Please model this.
Amino acid sequence: MEKSKRKKLQIFFDSDIEPQYKSEESIRNNEASKGQVWEFIAIATVPLVLVLGNSMLVPILPDMQERLGISQFQSSLVITLFSVTAGLVIPLSGYLSDRFSRKAIMIPSLIIYGAAGVLAGFGAVWNSYTVIIIARAIQGLGAAGTAPIAMALAGDMYKEATESKALGLTEASNGAGKVISPILGALLALWVWYAPFFAFPFFCLMSLLAVMFLLKEPKKEKKAPEPGPYMKNIGKVLKEKGRWLITSFFAGSLALFVLFGVLFYLSDILELEPYYIDGVKKGFVLAIPLLGLVVTSYTTGSVIKKNGILMRWLMNIGLALMTVSLGLCIFFFNQNLTLFIGLLTLSSIGTGLLLPCLNTMITGSVEREQRGMITSIYSSLRFLGVAAGPPLFGWMMEKSHQIVFISVTALALLALGLVFFFIKPEGKVGG
Model:
């Protein structure tokens, strides 16, 4: 509040009018802060639409089987084929983003992603499973140039604590998409079963506009190397840092494999005796563990900054939490639904402690010229983990429900051991 004073009467008046003068530094800081918020929002939309384009279809798979007369395996390919295609193409997208620019790959990728979504929607209207599958494969090609490149771009744009916060936000946005996807998909299906196919391109368009107009990519300081020297540099990075990088790749892909596999398992048993929970209500139940992931991911990204010692603690605590909670599920998976959901939520919280730390370490481990490829290899393995989760969990469920949780507990324990011995960041990560 500014105070103005009359000299003769010595009376003071409080004014609601803002001061006419502000320091240039104050104005610049305020504008920079507002600009950064919009940049964060634009970056966050990319992993969000990536998840919506896949997970939003999960609730309508049973309807698709009935309407198109296809098997459960054929309907699962709508999810799996998308993830496999994206996982295989992501490394190429990473190289191209290093060779040219991040936005030069992200913008056409979002266009392809959204356009193929429209094609898949028309395939559903035409009752053509073939058109849907082809469109989903094309969507996978587009998806390869979205979230993984956004992660590399965040590493380019921000440094220090801001970088870890931005990366934590991308992981939280990814998780938020997983939370709302089953609910949104189930709600849209109440209108017509194929509505989620057509709703997704709208979200994709919003993300496209945000990336085009809100994100300003830093100029490259060095000319991108030709393919030969580029691959040589990547090989050098993997040779020097391969022990902890490969361990990070494994831990990240395992976390997504467990997360999507457990969700597939939970989605299946909720519709059976004694629960009989389906539709929108099932979407809300599935959202509970994912909400734990979202809140933890964002909080972790905000607090770790570049503190290597803190990251090491949080990664080990996260994997230990996953191991213990999944191990307890061996004994309590069929005892009490509330207890079971609580244990799965604890596992998701462990995942939320792990992933932002891995993201920050991996993006900060290499120079900008190789960052796109390294983050893309990581993202590719995460996609393949997502793709492998549902079919492998389905196969294990046919054998025994206890085998499901014995297997994932053993894998989480293995990841904990590898991370404990091979990933030992000290001081400030990324220099």
Q: What stands out?
A: The first strand starts at residue 2 and ends at 5. DSSP finds 14 helices and two strands in the chain. The first helix runs from residue 24 to 55.
